[in-house]
Automatic annotation (TrEMBL):
Protein name, per record: IS630 family transposase
Entry keyword annotation includes Transit peptide: no
InterPro entries given in the database record: Homeodomain-like_sf (IPR009057), MscS-like_channel (IPR052702), RNaseH-like_sf (IPR012337), Tc1-like_DDE_dom (IPR038717), Transpos_IS630-like (IPR047655)
Sorted UniProt keywords: Plasmid
Pfam families for the chain: DDE_3, HTH_32
Domain Tc1-like transposase DDE, residue spans: 173-317
Length: 354
């Protein structure tokens, strides 16, 4: 049974809004039908005639006539619906975060989704994964950090960076360090063809070790060229022998040498007195990344040492020497691009020492 029709009285303002809604090409069909129902009802049309013209049931026309008569334009909007109650709430999220602050179960190195779900007891593992993704929490990735506690960090960093961006006139700036214990490993290697037809290089898991060498290297900041020698050990005597060869390569030149805080690099006052043209500059504690030769060691590892095989220690040394010669033929200086070097503390990060 259709309820008694309610009279609809439109204000001039409401009529303009509803007519604009009917003319707009982006109006939703449901909103368009409701606007037409109210406009026709305001013109005095009956419920059945409106239903026939708009293409809806008479009870629908009666509903929107009553809704507009009682609440105006706001009555034409859908009422909020309760919907299904969520299984998991913010309390669940807080439980997950609280659990992540605790150490993982005994015997495990880290939390995983299944371990979290098992520890919570009433939370599905899929929700755990969705929560971690939404908060950008990666349980697998690991980030290492090195925080310098050097009280003179700013002064030392400024000294080193100043040599890079504004080297002293008529002086040579060198970055010196060692890459110790480079292994001469002999592995079977070659091309492998997989069952799907794909070919790739590979090497055997087993290897034969033919000894190690320590590489002393000096990078000339202005040109990017390398001076390198091999040694069995990395003691003070080997370091000073290398520095003798470096000074011989730049006779009668003022040398500014950037070094890290290795013990063998320090307490060499007697040698420095014998070589007044050489001045040592030390990077801050735990900040050897400021030494540009570390960048070159990374290049050496990636382009020359990774995935190679050597049948003797001599072959390894000759291989490195050949790479150094090839590198020097196309060497270019590294460009210092970082504008500021700061000693940053871990503030606002959930890092605790266990």
């Amino acid at each position: 049974m259709i309820p008694e029709a309610r009279e609809v009285h439109l204000s001039r303002k409401d009529r303009k809004v509803l007519e604009a809604c009917c003319r707009s090409p982006v109006t939703l069909q449901r909103d368009l039908k409701r606007a037409r129902i109210v406009l026709l009802a305001a013109d005095g049309r009956s419920t059945r005639s409106i239903a026939k013209e708009v293409g809806v049931q008479p009870r629908i026309v009666s509903l929107w006539r009553h809704r507009y008569a009682d609440h105006g334009l706001e009555g034409l909007q859908d009422k909020p619906r309760p919907g299904k109650q969520p299984i998991y709430t913010k309390t669940t999220d807080k439980r997950i975060l609280k659990l992540l602050d605790k150490p993982p179960p005994q015997g495990f190195a880290r939390w995983t989704g299944p371990l979290l779900a098992e520890a919570l007891g009433d939370v599905d593992v899929q929700y755990v994964w969705r929560f971690l993704r939404s908060h950008k929490i990666d349980l697998v990735a690991r980030k290492s950090w090195c925080e310098s506690n050097d009280p003179n960090f700013t002064a030392k960093a400024a000294d080193v960076v100043g040599l890079y961006v504004a080297p002293p006139a008529k002086a040579i700036v060198l970055c010196v360090d060692e890459k110790p214990s480079i292994q001469a490993l002999e592995r079977a290697q070659g091309y492998l063809k997989l069952a799907n037809g794909r070919a790739l290089t590979g090497q055997s898991h087993d290897y034969k070790r033919h000894g190690t060498t320590t590489l002393f290297a000096a990078l000339e900041v202005a040109t990017g060229k390398i001076i390198a020698t091999h040694s069995k050990r990395r003691r003070r005597v080997e370091f000073l022998d290398f520095m003798n060869s470096v000074t011989a390569a730049f006779p009668n030149r003022k040398l500014h040498v950037i070094l890290d805080n290795l013990n063998t690099h320090k307490k060499n006052e007697d040698w420095l007195k014998a070589h007044p043209n050489v001045q040592f500059h030390f990077t801050p504690t735990s900040a050897s990344w400021l030494n540009q030769v570390e960048v070159w060691f990374s290049i050496l590892q990636g382009q020359s040492l990774s995935g190679t095989s050597f049948t003797s220690l001599k072959q390894l040394q000759e291989h490195i020497d050949a790479y150094v010669n090839a590198y020097n033929d196309r060497a270019e200086p590294f460009v210092w691009t970082k504008k500021k070097v700061r000693q940053r503390r871990f503030k606002g990060r959930r890092i605790t020492q266990l």
